[in-house]
Amino acid sequence: MRDPDAAPVRLADYRPPAWTVEAVDLVFELDREESEVEAVLALRCDVPGAPLRLDGEALALRWLELDGRRLAVDEFHLTNEGLEVFPAQGLARCRLRSRVGLRPAANTRLEGLYASGRLLLTQCEAEGFRRISFFIDRPDVLARWRTTLRAERARYPVLLAGGNRISERVLEDGRHEAVWENPHPTPCYLFALAAGPMARVSKRLTGADSREIELNVWVEGEDPEPCRYALGAVERALRWDEQRFGRCYDLGVFNVVAAQDFTMGAMENKGLNIFNARYILADERSATDADFLAIESVVGHEYFHNWSGNRVTLRDWFQLSLKEGLTVFRDQEFTADLHSRDLKRIEDVRLLRGRQFAEDAGALAHPVRPAEYREINNFYTLTVYEKGAEIIRMLHTRLGEAAFRAGMDRYFSEHDGRAATLEDFYAAHSAASGVDCRDMLAWYAQAGTPVLAVERHFDAEHGRFELRIEQRPPANVPGAGPLPIPLRFALLDAFGHALPPPAVHDAEAMPGGGLLLRHARHVLRWEGLAAEPLPVLNLGFSAPVRLELAYTALERGRLVREARDGFARWDALQALALEVLLDRAGARPAPAPAEAEAALFAALGALLGDAAAHPAFVAECFVLPDIDTLADAVPVADPLALVAAREALLERLAETHAEALAARFAALEAAAGGGLADAAMAARRLRHALLPLITRRDGGAAARALFAGARGMDERFAALRALLHAGVEGAEAARVRFAAEFADDPLVTDKWIGLVATRPRPEALEAVQALMATPLWLPANPNRVRALLGGFARSNPAAFHRADGAGYRLVAEQVALLDAINPQVAARLLGAFEGLPRWAPAFAGRARAALAPLRQGERSRDVAELLARLPA
Ligand code: B3K
Ligand code: ZN
Fold it and tell me: Is 63 exposed, middle or buried (0-12, 13-18, 19+ CB in 10 A)?
C-alpha cells in the first residue's frame, strides 16, 4: 500500500520519462483465484545513466530476467510501490522479463485484474496497470502491445484484449489461447482484457475510410439481446464522429463488454471498452427512457475517446481535462445533434449549476487543472469533466464551428500517437484559426465560478441604453483576475423583437455573434432606442458564470414568454422559481415574493395549456431547482429550510393547477405509448414530470393506474416513484410486486432501492438501514452502493441532513467500511460532505462530529486526501 501521507504529486515537477517502453509482450495464464502474468518489456533509456524504475503494487514477483539473464535478489530493489533494476543502469536499451502472480477474486478494489461474476476483467485508468505487471505506469509512455491470453476453455470460452485478434488456438489440458495486437502507440492505462462466458450482438460495417470493422457488444451469459440498443449507439457514434469531426475508427474490431461490477460508468480502453452494465443493458421492459439516453451518451463518450484520449493521449494526469472535458463536449454535441439541442443544453446546465458550481464553491473545490494531487482518482470530478467541457464550448463559441473544426483537425494531426498538454491543444487552435486563444488556459488554473454583475441604465431622453458589466472573482478565490468570457446576449424591444448588437463597446466581437469580455469592466451601449429594451444575457449559457442581473417578476415572466431560444425561456423560469424558493426559505429575501410566485405559476400554467409547446421542454420547466442549486445560490444554507420551502411550493403549485395538470397528463396518454420514438419519450417525460404533482392531490389514483397498466419500464418506474415518494396507499404493494418481478435483475433492483433511499422523508434513513440488513446489501458492488448510499447522501437532503445528525453518521460510518473494500467508491461517497463549509452552523457542527471518528483509523489515500480537505 502506498503511503497516504506521502508528498503530493506536483504539476511543476513534471519531467519527461527517463526510460520508456517501446513494446510490450504480455502472456496471461488466467484463473480467478491465481493468475500469472509474464511480461517482456522492450525498454529504451532517454536520459543516459538514469536508474530503471518500474511501478508495481500488490504483485507477487516470481522472477526477473534482464536481457535473458535471471537476476539475483541483490540485483534489484523491491518496495511496496515498485522495483529498481540495478544492472540496467547505464544501458541504452534492454529487455526486461518479469513474472508475477495476481489474485483477481480477492481484488475488491476493482482496479487491475478482477473478477465480476464469472468474468475476469481489468480496469487500469488511472494507475491500475501497475497492479497487473511491473511497468512505467504513466500516460506519456506509449508502447506497442501484444497480449496473449490463456485459460481453461470451459470456464473462459471468450478471450478478449485490446487491438486486433491475430490468432487463437486450442492448447492441451482443456486450455486455449488468443493473441491480440494493438499497433497504435498506447499508454498502459488503456490496456484491457476480458475473459469468460459471454454472448454478443455484432455488426459489420465499412468505415468512411473503407476500413472493414466488426462491432461487438458482449455480456456475461447466453443472452446478448439486451446489448442491442447499445450496439446501435456504437454505430451512431462511429458515424457521427466521421461526419462531424472527420474521425475514423482505426482497428478491425471494436469490442464492448458489460460488467456488473464496475467502479465508474465505463472505460475507453483501446479497442476494448469495458462498461458498467447499467450503460449497456436495456430493453423497454427493464430500462427507462433516461437509461436509454444515458446509454447512448456514455457509449458515444467512450467511443469518442478513441481520438480524444487514445490516439492523442495525455502527457500527465494533470492534463486530465484535455481528454475528459473535450470528450464530454463531443458527447454533448452528439446528443444535441441526434435529439434536441435546447433540451440537452438545459440538462447539462442543470447539472453544472446544481453540482459543479457547488463542487467549485465547496471544500473540495479545485482548478480544472489542479497544481497537485495525492490520489489522481479523486480528480475525476464534475469540475474536470463538466466545467472542462464548458471551457471547450466557450472556445467553440468564440471561434465558430468552422474554425473550431480546423483547430481540432490540426490538434489531432499534430499530436497523433503522442501525449499532449492543454498548451498543445490551445496552440493548435490558435495556429489554425489565427486567433490567439491561449488566454483560455487561465480558466484551467483557477478554481471557483466567476460572477458577472450587470447593471442596466436607460437614458430615455437620448434613447441610450447601457449594460455595465463587472466580472468579479469567485467568492472562494478572492484574488483571481478576470477570465476571457464569451458572452452571447440579446435585447428584446417592447414587441419581443431582437435588437441589433451594441453600437459602442470595448470588447472583441466573435464571429458567430456575441462579445468576448476580457476585462474586469465592460460597458455595452446602444443608441437611438425608442423605449427601454429587455436584455437576455448569457444566451445558451455561453459562459459558466453566475450572472447577477436584477429583473422584476414581470420582466422574468416576459422572458419566459418572449425569449427566442428554449434555453433562455427555461432559464428565466428557473430564476423565478429560485427567487421564490430562497425567499420562502428565509435564505434570501425577494423584493416582491408574492408577485414572483404569481408570475411563476402563471408561466407554468400557460405552458401547461399550450398544446404547441414541446412536451419535453415543458417537462424541464416543471422540474424546479433542486436543493443543491438552491444551496449554491446563498452563502450559508439551511438545507432543511430549503427542503421545506420546496415542498410547500410544490404543494401550492399542485393545488393551483390541479385541473390543468390532470388534463395535460390525460391528453398525452396515447402519445406516450409510442415506444422509443422521440415524440413518445417527450410525452412520457412530461407526464412523468407532472405525476408527482398530481399524486399530491389525487391520493395516488393516477399513479396506481399507470403502474397497473404500464406499457414499459419508463411508465412503471415513474408510477412507482410517485407512489413511493408520496407514501400513498398502494405504494408498498407496488414496491413488493416490482421487487419480486425483477428480483433476478440487479440493475432494476438498484432502481427501486434508489427510490427507497431518496424518499424525501427523514424516515428514509431507517428504510436504508433496514435494507442494509438484508442480502440485498452488496457493499462490494459499486452500483448497489451508489443506489442505496449514494442516492441517500446526494439526492435525499431531507434524510441526509436530518436534525439528529443520524444521516451524516450513517454515511461517515459506511465510508470507513467501504474504504477497506473499494477506496474510490468510499471517496465518492465522502464527497457528499463537500458543501459543509456553507451549511448553517448547526448542520456543519453535526457533520464535523460525524466525520471525526473517520479521521482516527487508517485510511486509503483516496479517503485520506478528501478528509484532509474537509474542515475538521
Ligand atoms: N476515463 C474513464 C474514467 C476513469 C476513472 C478512473 N478513476 C471513463 C471516462 O471518462 O470515459
Ligand atoms: Zn471520459
Answer: exposed
Cβ neighbours for 824, distance < 8 A, ≥ 6 positions apart: 109, 110, 111, 263, 264, 377, 862
Backbone angles phi, psi at 290, to 5 degrees: -60, -35
Give me the pLDDT at residue 579, please: 97
* Residue nearest to ligand 1 atom 3, measured at CA: 267
Q: Which residues line ligand 1 (CB under 6 A)?
A: 125-126, 264, 266-268, 301-302, 305, 324, 377, 380, 824
- What is the DSSP secondary structure assignment for residue 588, as one 8-state letter? S
Which amino acid makes up residue 225? E
**Residue with CA nearest ligand 1 atom 1:** 267
Question: Beta partners for 155?
Answer: none
For 658-717, write each residue's pLDDT tens digit.
Answer: 999 999 999 999 999 999 999 999 999 999 999 999 999 999 999 999 999 999 999 999
Question: Which ligand has the nearest atom to the CA of 322?
Answer: 2
Ligand nearest to the CA of residue 128, numbered in listed order: 1
Cα–chain-centroid distance for residue 129?
23
- Catalytic pick from 302, 333, 359, 579? 302
Give the residues across from 590 on adjacent strands.
Answer: none
- Nearest alpha-carbon partner for 379 in 11, 12, 871: 11
Let me know: does 680 contact 672? Beta carbons within 8 Å: yes
Report which bound ligand comes closest to the CA of 828.
1
Q: Is the pLDDT of residue 4 over 90?
A: no
Split at pLDDT 50, 70, 90, the class of 405 is very high
* Alpha carbon nearest to ligand 1 atom 9, residue: 267
Distance CA 660, CA 663 (A): 5
Ramachandran bin of 58, using left for φ above 0, alpha for ψ from -120 to 50, beta for the remaining angles: left
Calculate how far, in angstroms, residue 723's C-alpha sits from the geometric centre of ligand 1: 35
Burial class (CB in 10 A: 0-12, 13-18, 19+), 680: buried
Q: Radius of gyration over alpha carbons of the chain, in Å?
A: 28
Nearest Cα to Cα of residue 691 among 679, 705, 678, 677: 705
The C-alpha cell 472505460 sits at: 267
State which amino acid sits at residue 553.
Answer: A
Distance 265 CA to ligand 1 centre (A): 7
* pLDDT at position 594: 97
Which residue minimizes the CA distance to atom 4 of ligand 1?
A: 125
* Angle, vertex CA 313, rays to CA 263 and CA 56, nearest 5: 55
Please write the tens of the pLDDT for every residue from 286-338.
Answer: 999 999 999 999 999 999 999 999 999 999 999 999 999 999 999 999 999 99
**Residue written as cell 484491457?**
192
pLDDT at 1 over 60: no
Q: What are phi and psi of 219, to 5 degrees?
A: -145, 150
Place of cell 477506496: 823
Question: Mean pLDDT over residues 57-62, rounded?
Answer: 98
φ and ψ of 69, to 5 deg = -115, 125
Residue 839 is given by DSSP the state: B
Ligand 1 closest atom vs CA 385 = 10
Is 38 labeled as catalytic in the residue annotation?
no
Produce one character per residue of 217-249: b if its CB has 16 or more CB atoms within 10 Å, e if not. bbbbeeebebbebbbbbbbbbbebbeeebebbb
Closest-CA residue, ligand 1 atom 7, reads: 377
* Alpha helices for 699-820 (secondary structure H): 701-708, 713-726, 731-741, 746-757, 764-772, 782-785, 791-795, 797-800, 806-819
Q: How many angstroms does the Cα of residue 403 sit away from the middle of ligand 2?
A: 24
Atom index in ligand 1 nearest the CA of residue 263 equals: 7
Going by their DSSP bridges, the two strands 253-259 and 272-276 should be labelled as: parallel
What is the best residue among 114, 131, 268 to mutate for testing ligand 1's pocket, by most ligand atoms within 8 Å of CB? 268
Please tell me the distance between residue 19's alpha carbon and the centre of ligand 2 in angstroms.
Answer: 28
